[in-house]
Amino acid sequence: MRNFDLKGIKDKVDERTIDKSAKSAMALTLREGIETVWDRLEKQQPQCGFGQLGVCCNRCTMGPCRIDPFEGGLERGVCGANADLIVARNFLDDLSTGAAAHSDHGREVVETLYKTSTGQSQGYRIVDREKLNRIAVELGVDVKDRDQNDIGKDVALYLLEEFGTIKNSIKFVERAPDQTRKIWKNAGIYPRSVDREIVEAMHRIHMGVGADYANILLHGLRTSLSDGWGGSMMATEVSDILFGTPEIKESTINMGVLKEDMVNVILHGHNPILSEMVVIAARQPELLESAKKKGAKGINLAGMCCTGNELLMRKGVPVAGSFLNQELAIATGAVEVMVVDYQCIFPSIAQTADCFHTKIISTSEKSKVPGAVHMEFHPETASDTAEKIIRTAIENYPMRNPDRVMIPPKPVKMLAGFSVEAIVKALGGTAKPLIDVIAAGKIRGAVGIVGCNNPKIRQDYGHVTLAKELIKNNILVVETGCAAIASGKAGLMLPEAAEMAGDRLKEVCLSLGIPPVLHMGSCVDCSRILVLGAELGKALGVGIDQLPMAGAAPEWYSQKAVSIASYFVSSGVYTVLGVPPKIFGSKNVINLVAKDIQNVVNATFAVEPDPVEASKLIINHIEEKRKALNI
Ligand code: BF8
Question: Is-cis flag, bond preceding 46, omega within 30?
């Protein structure tokens, strides 16, 4: 295995990431001219100013049009739309794309439950029967003296209807405190069904439909709620039923989880339905034997992005990294196969893999990748596909060039698996101790740090800096997505990290043996943060908007993050974005989302690129909420 020295390029590498495990691979890409996302960002400079401000409209063939943000410039597109409308339509477009991505993922999980319950899938079983029963009762599905498959089938059918228009209201929103639901009703944003809100959003942004920017944005709030309390929540809950509700467990994280003497398989993307099967296949003695025959000591699985988070939470599978690590992991020269399902996969990932022996295996009919080997996944043949993937990786092991292998030395230990159920269990069976420590001021409040990496921000700096500032101020941090991976890599998810927390939070963490930053899962698991907020609100007898709680997405890039931030705000959670959304071309839209929306959902968005400043905004907000609650 070789080492790589950073001489001459250290500054550039340091500018791009704080992830120590990524640095040598990044140096290699720079030295050998292997293009990465950072290089492409550089080549794209200067990026289109109209696009950044959100005033470019490419919706119809009378355009494309753009509005001049300065006085005296072009004020309307060919159709007559002004900057407010163009910005609002673009924003709703992004939000709906994100809501669709989460929810379509959720639908596939529910379909897998249906196929499993009706004997049509291969290799799956209902793992968490208790949760299946609990949700069945919640949905009004009869459980008495019934076979679990019959219950599973009815639960799946019930949930599939949540996507349609028959019921006209999403069931899981009933988990929110009454006060919060009243706000939604009064504002006219009570979500009716997942598909309906998304399709209606697409309708509203068609030329000649919605012309009122505020009305367009209001529908955005409703659409986001159908994701958070609908599509994403179904993805989370049904994945728990099929694969087990996460429990607190130890694992390791960063690119050092790859193994020099093993067949390395990276599982990248978002949906756990195939990767769970790959985990099972990788344990088959016969496949382990074949790996040994090829000279490897075994088969090593590592997660990436949210598929990684899903496997980490439930199975303790180590995580190699987040969104910005995908090309760098390949550059270690030690990855036999990278399996991708969908979302957050660079379209050029197979070109990166071409520089090494790595094979990219695409698995979703929705997400074909040029240059990848396509092994289409269907629940009916899941075990066969998973086995084929592992065999491909084993066959590829001898193609590895040991002289090009460069794995960073040491992964970081971490705790994961903080589902709401696991948190309640750690607290002794009820959420009351958490309420008590919040009321007593030992924990000032809770903040969900969520979302992506973005090459415009030094990788992980925003997440880690904000988390450190908040815990120092006795605020409990809960995380999902790439934010959680960042804190895991930075060592904030170990009980010892309590030493970095303020004295009072430290005391609570030490007494419970938990870290001050809790890993709550993947991005669809932001729905777990909503459930936690709902539980706290109900226990205190208040709406979510009244809680000392906030959200942050310091390094977000994706449309899914737009939807998450919007359902946080719609649910009453003040949310600070570290990357400006593309709305700055309209003063009216900015006023609405940063100020006037307060009168609608009692929460606002804020934008603050500096994480230290963002922490101050959040701390102020939390203290104000505490004061209003008189705690
Ligand atoms: O759903 S945090 S970069 S991996 S979009 Fe993607 Fe963003 Fe990461 Fe997960 Ni979420």
Answer: yes
Report the alpha-carbon distance of residue 537 to residue 108 in Å, rounded: 31
549 forms beta bridges with 446
Q: Output the pLDDT for position 1.
A: 54
Structure confidence at residue 3 (pLDDT): 60
The answer to whether the CB of 285 falls within 8 A of the CB of 293 is no
505-524: pLDDT as tens digits = 999 999 999 999 999 999 99
Residues 311 and 276: beta-carbon distance below 8 Å: yes
Is residue 486 within 6 Å of ligand 1 at its C-beta? no
pTM above 0.85, yes or no: yes
Q: Are strands 359-362 and 373-374 parallel, antiparallel or unpaired?
A: parallel
CA of 102 to the centre of ligand 1 (A): 11
In the sheet where 445-449 sits, what is the strand order?
517-521, 475-480, 445-449, 549-553, 574-577, 605-607
Rounded to an integer, what distance in angstroms lies between the CA atom of residue 313 and that of residue 264?
20
> Is 576 exposed, middle or buried, given 0-12, 13-18 or 19+ CB atoms closer than 10 A?
buried
The average confidence (pLDDT) of the chain is: 97
Does ligand 1 lie within 6 Å of residue 523's CB atom? yes
Walk me through the domains of the chain, giving residue ranges and CATH numbers: 83-243 (1.20.1270.30), 255-404 (3.40.50.2030)
Q: What is the residue type of 413?
A: K
For tokens 């409040």, what's the residue? Answer: 445
| Residues 150-166 pLDDT 10s | 999 999 999 999 999 88
Query: Per-residue pLDDT for 430 more than 60?
Result: yes
CA–centroid distance, residue 16 to ligand 1 (Å): 18
Does 307 sit in the ligand 1 pocket, CB within 6 Å?
no
